[in-house]
Recover the amino acids of this structure.
């Protein structure tokens, strides 16, 4: 994974699942980690929360945006409020994060690295998960735009696209397809995904920006 000694990182969704695993892994690798989550005072849908968070961070090298929600339901049975909730958290939340964190990264003369947590469902449709799929498809394009906007300041932006990961979010949605039905016949664990994210954050992936790292056990083949 490499060393992150002397680096400062911001991780959202850091109270559970992938975000928690990433925050722990970055800290173990030597980084100073700022942990943000709804239970820690950050509602990613609220711009004032982002402004308050960024105001307390003097410098930044890494931004991992893991905050997100899932939702199940056929299109005709999905309430507009539920569709909007998923879009607001997964897509607008990522937009607000980039809006307020990118200037901080651009001030770093060494550049920086952003990793957004996408999903295999951003490229492979899933019946009964339209809101989630569309939010993650939009996240991929958001990452590409941010990569172009960050290039002159040496800020790289990539995203990872897992399929099934053993997290509380997926345990709450038993109606969605079994993500262990893939060529490797298994789901991933948060610490495995975290290792891949640290690769994207570090110097070993210095030639990557605007790129998707699929971590889906072949689910999208």
């Amino acid at each position: 994974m490499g060393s992150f000694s002397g680096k400062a990182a911001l991780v959202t969704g850091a109270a559970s699942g992938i975000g928690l695993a990433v925050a722990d892994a970055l800290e173990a690798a030597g980084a100073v980690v700022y942990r943000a989550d709804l239970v820690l005072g950050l509602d990613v849908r609220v711009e004032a929360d982002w402004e308050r968070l960024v105001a307390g961070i003097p410098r930044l090298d890494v931004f991992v945006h893991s905050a997100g929600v899932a939702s199940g339901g056929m299109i005709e049975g999905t309430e507009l409020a539920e569709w909007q909730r998923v879009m607001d958290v997964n897509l607008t939340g990522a937009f607000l994060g980039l809006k307020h964190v990118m200037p901080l990264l651009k001030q770093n003369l060494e550049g920086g690295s952003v990793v957004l947590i996408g999903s295999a469902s951003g490229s492979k449709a899933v019946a009964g998960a339209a809101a989630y799929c569309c939010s993650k498809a939009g996240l991929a394009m958001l990452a590409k735009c941010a990569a172009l906007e960050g290039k002159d300041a040496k800020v790289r932006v990539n995203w990872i696209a897992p399929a099934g990961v053993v997290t509380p979010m997926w345990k709450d949605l038993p109606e969605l397809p079994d993500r262990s039905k893939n060529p490797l016949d298994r789901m991933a664990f948060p610490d495995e995904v975290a290792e891949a994210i640290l690769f994207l954050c570090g110097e070993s992936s210095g030639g990557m920006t605007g790129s998707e790292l699929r971590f889906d056990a072949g689910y999208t083949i």
About this structure: Residues 8-215 form a domain with the Rossmann fold fold (CATH 3.40.50.720). The longest helix spans residues 80-106.
